[in-house]
Amino acid sequence: MHIIGMLIVGLIAGALARLILPGKDPMSFLMTIVLGIIGSFVGGFIGNLLWHKEGASYFRSGGIILSLLGAILVLWVWRMIRARTA
């Protein structure tokens, strides 16, 4: 069940990130999910740095808000890297 939940949160976060940062990104449905999952890890990592709890694992899901912020950051970095190589 945890994996299914992670896929759903990843899909939602990735899709919302692509809606908030519109642009020409030829991403498939699967890549949108991967974007959201990576964003979830990035958001959880940033949340852990800001609000560190003793005994908590280092990487954890930060909820939909931090997942969305992480996905936006990952999408922005991806576009910057792609723009420099093109």
The run of helices and strands is HHH
Q: How does the helix and strand content classify structurally?
A: mainly alpha
Q: Biggest β-sheet, characterized?
A: none
Mean pLDDT: 79
The domain count comes to 1
What percentage of the residues does DSSP assign to strands (E)? Answer: under 5%
Discrete helix count: 3
N-C termini distance = 40 Å
What is the strand tally? 0
Q: Report the principal-axis shape.
A: globular
- Sequence stretches where pLDDT stays below 50 over 5 or more residues: none
Q: Provide the gyration radius in Å.
A: 13 Å
Helix content: over 70%
Describe, in plain words, how this protein is organized in 3D.
The protein is mostly helical. The chain has one domain. Helices cover 74% and strands 0% of the residues. The chain is globular, with a radius of gyration of 13 Å. The mean pLDDT is 79.
Quick rundown:
It contains three helices and no strands. The chain has about 90 residues and is mainly alpha-helical.
